[in-house]
Amino acid sequence: MKREEIIIPQADLDRQRDFQERIRALFSARGLSPRACVETFGCQQNVADGQRIMGMLEAMGFTFTQEPGEADLVLLNTCAIREHAEQRVFGNLGLLTHTKKERPDQVLVLCGCMAQEERVAKRVRESYRHVDLVFGPQALWRFPELLWQVYETRKRVFSIEDEHGGIAEGLPVVRERGVKAWVSIMYGCNNFCSYCIVPYVRGRERSREPAAVLTEVRQLVDEGYKDITLLGQNVNSYGNDLDRGYHFPELLEDIDQIPGDYWIRFMSSHPKDASPRLFDVMAKCSHVAKQLHLPFQSGNNRVLEEMNRRYTRESYLELIRYAKSVMPGLVLTSDVIIGFPGETEAEAMDTVSLVEEVGFDALFTFIYSPRPGTRAASMPDPVPREEKQRWFDKLLEVQNRRSAAIHAGYAGRTVRVLVDGESGDGDYPLSSRTEGNRLVRLKGDPALIGRFLEVRITGSNTWALYGEPV
Fold it and tell me: Hey, what domains does the chain have and what are their CATH numbers?
């Protein structure tokens, strides 16, 4: 598609603002102050989408509640990556039949990646008839218009067309006050990994204009946010569709010029698009955290080929060696899938051996979960779940031992942290993060939230460090 066909025209966005005003006026005429309950599942990209949905709802006159039974509108913003997340959503939809009976005028909305899947929309249409509105990620910017159709016609509305996807700038946003913020710099994915549903539900890759990203980050820094994460299904391919020689490393360099005391992170990255140039930029930029989340998924080349990952074990290890050479002390994390269809025990142990060789600080580990509509879902998968669980347990044993050892090595050290909230731990009531995104539970007063501190580490376990402000 041409660039001008991807950017949503201002006239179309103004039309959505008109629908926002109509809905606000509708409730105002009835003397009502509507409340919405928004629940978001899944990744940070979904969190960012949810904040824009809340922004539009606020513009329509809604306030917010966490209790579905108190809400005039309940919205589930869904994830399609794992089967478990899908079942949770269907379970919640079932429970909402009770709130709908108690509040017949309540509007129930299902949106996000899961809603974009045709089979899910069909199931909702046939079996969850109390759901009023269903729309996918590509239609998010049209939420006011779709919701107005529900109120005006009192009929169910479905918007799940297979679209390339667009970019809508200037949508209102409601962010949680604090120190962390998420900025989507691109949408969609072109990779079509054989196990992943994302390209089918979020459309093709499309990058925001650099000026728009820079304006948003600058505003966040001015508002006091200090831990800002750049988001995309594959941030490393940012700019490929701009066709102007401006890519992710250049964006990081320009963001780094914004004055202030803050950290910049990014996720998720794809090894096929990571480069020494990116790592050199990370190393020199003072605001870019020396933390890299680079999913490798499998340590076996045959499995990587079946996954359509387009790199090898050897090329991945070479990337890691270079990144460590220019950023000593780099904190490394990754995603791993165990039990991919057709994977043997020996191939699974290749993954374990790569984990041992690299020495990751932490991993996000998963047993393969088939997603209908992906190529992997139709592959023969003869290994029983119990056997995959045994391989998975071996992986966890290796990584947990490594994580515990790394954390134990911090005892007595002084590190810089950003205090980002309360921990819920009576002895260590504050939560904070190092530049490498390590969790540090702290002793101290909540007045410290939002500040950078020097902290002496006094203890640790596999998942966290413990410390006291110096």
Answer: 3-159 (3.40.50.280), 181-408 (3.80.30.20), 414-469 (2.40.50.140)
